[in-house]
């Protein structure tokens, strides 16, 4: 699941810096922004979204190193790590009780076709990239890869960052409901268009995966945009979760759905 979270976020960063129409081509010189994105995910503890940082940040979510992460825990971890990421200038919003609040998102950033991806458990820990009729097309990261690091010229051998195996298919009825939906909006108008699309195509359904509301529900606690804690560290340093993450509120792995 940690790798799925990395894949989802990496896709969002590709959209952020290179655009939705950009495609990776094997053994071709890549843009410098692409190389910098890769460096965010290297398996080193000084990389912002490394497996080390995600696992360590999970300790603040009550997850021991090596313990299984659910989709919500991964989302919470990425939300907190993004606070230390100054280059990408990314705000990560995680909905509460499967309810997306427009007012809260605009308070967070006001600058958020819109899907990033879906991370979930069907098959276990895979990334759903597209769909065709009632079938989902997914990528499975469960492949042993060679460790890579930054080369002398500052680039990264990117072969292991891409699924070179063919995408697989599954019927949507076989989808495990324990999933995280990811959407990336670069500007406020993108977010407004996404809201209009959701209201038109999704909210008319009787059984929907999430709700979209304009105002913050009155019975909820006040919304407080996440803020970087006062610590002497950056996203490029290994975060000591037992001390530096005390200011973060813990959230449960699972919420109750009302359908």
UniProtKB/TrEMBL annotation:
SUPFAM superfamilies (UniProt xref): Cysteine proteinases
A Gene Ontology molecular function term of the record: cysteine-type peptidase activity
Family indicated by similarity: Belongs to the peptidase C54 family.
Organism whose genome encodes this protein: Daubentonia madagascariensis
Taxonomic classification: Eukaryota, Metazoa, Chordata, Craniata, Vertebrata
UniProt keyword annotations, A-Z: Autophagy, Cytoplasm, Hydrolase, Lipid metabolism, Protease, Protein transport, Thiol protease, Transport, Ubl conjugation pathway
Signal sequence segment: none
Entry's localization field: Cytoplasm
Name of this protein: Cysteine protease
Keyword Metal-binding: no
Gene Ontology cellular component list: cytoplasm
């Amino acid at each position: 699941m940690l790798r799925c979270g990395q894949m989802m976020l990496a896709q969002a960063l590709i959209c952020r810096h290179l655009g939705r129409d950009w495609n990776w081509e094997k053994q071709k010189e890549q843009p410098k922004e692409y190389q910098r994105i890769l460096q965010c995910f290297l398996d080193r503890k000084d990389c912002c979204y490394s497996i080390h940082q995600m696992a360590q940040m999970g300790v603040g979510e009550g997850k021991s190193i090596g313990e299984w992460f659910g989709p919500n825990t991964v989302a919470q971890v990425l939300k907190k790590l993004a606070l230390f990421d100054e280059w990408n200038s990314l705000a990560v919003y995680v909905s509460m009780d499967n309810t997306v609040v427009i007012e809260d998102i605009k308070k967070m950033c006001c600058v958020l076709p819109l899907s990033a991806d879906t991370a979930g458990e069907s098959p276990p820990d895979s990334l759903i990239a597209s769909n065709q009729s009632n079938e989902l097309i997914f990528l499975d990261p469960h492949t042993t890869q060679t460790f890579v690091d930054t080369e002398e010229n500052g680039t990264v051998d990117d072969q292991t960052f891409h699924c070179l195996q063919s995408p697989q298919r599954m019927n949507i009825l076989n989808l495990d409901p324990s999933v995280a939906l990811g959407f990336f909006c670069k500007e406020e108008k993108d977010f407004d268009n996404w809201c209009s699309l959701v209201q038109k195509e999704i909210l008319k359904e009787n059984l929907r995966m999430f709700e979209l509301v304009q105002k913050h529900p009155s019975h909820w606690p006040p919304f407080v945009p996440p803020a970087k804690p006062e610590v002497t560290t950056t996203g490029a340093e290994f975060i000591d979760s037992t001390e530096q993450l005390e200011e973060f509120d813990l959230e449960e792995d699972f919420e109750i759905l009302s359908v």
